[in-house]
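Worked example 2:
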Amino acid sequence: MLRLRKSKLLPQQVSDLGAFIFVTLMIPVTYIWEVAVVSQSLFPKDSISWYFHMFFGLVVVINISGNFLGLWLVDTSTRHIMIPSAQLGQERWHYCAVCEAVSPPRAWHCSVCGVCILKREHHCMFAGYCVGHFNHRYFILFLAWMWMGVLYCTYFNSLYVWTEFGLVSPLALLKFVFPLLILMSGMDISWTQVAIFFWSVHVAALLLTSVLLVYHVRLIHKGNTTFEANRKISNYNLGWKQNWIEVLGYKWYIAVFWPFAKSKLPHNGVEWDTRETWKLEAPKNR
C-alpha cells in the first residue's frame, strides 16, 4: 500500500513554489476556459461533437489532476524503510552521511527534499518533490496526459483565435510574442489578448512537455533514470516490456487510463534485479 506524505507538502524552494502554484492554478483555469469559451465558439451546443469534446476534456483533466496528486503526495523516500545495517559494504549499497543511514541500490539523497529517495529519478520542480520508485508512474503519466491535453488545447485555441479575431497585423505578432507583458501592462486588456495569452501558454507547454516526454520515455524504455543516466549506470535494463512494468506496475493497462487504480510494482524499492540476476531468476517466475 502506498504511503502518503504528511509534512512539508509545499515546495521548499521559491522556484519550485512558483512552478507548483502555476501548474495547480492553470489546470482548472484552462479547463474552464476551454469549456466555457473555446468549445462554445467552435461547436454547436448539445451536438454530438460538443458532447464528445466535453467527455474527452473531462477524461484528460481527471488524469492530469489525479497523476499530479500521486506525483506530489506519494512518499517515495527511505524514511519509513527498515534497512539492515548488515547491508553496509554490500555491492551497490552505500552510506548516506546526511541521513546517517544505509541506503539501498538506486536510492540517493536529495538536498532539497532533505532525504534519500528510493530509485531517485530527479527532483521535479512542478511538484516540489523528487520522482522516485513509488511515484515514477504518476510522473510519466502526468507528463503524457499533460502533453495530450496541451496538444489538444493548442489546436483548438489556434482555431478559436484565427476564426474569432483573424489576427495578421504586425501589432498582432507583438501580442503573440509578449502576451503576458501586454496584458499586465494595460496596453491591451481586451478579450482578444486574453485568448492570445492562453494560446501562448499552451504552445510553450506543448514544446516543454514534448521534450520532457521524449526524454523520459527513452529512459524508461532502457530501464534507466536521469540520475543513473548522468552517471552512466545501466545495470537495470531488463528488456523494454519489463522496464515499463517496473514503472507502471502489473495493471498498467488500467493505470494508464485511471490514475487512482492500484497497480502493484514488481520490486519494493530496496531489492532490485539486474540484467544478470534477471536472466537467471526471471524464467522461474514467468
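The first helix runs from residue 14 to 42. The first strand starts at residue 94 and ends at 96.
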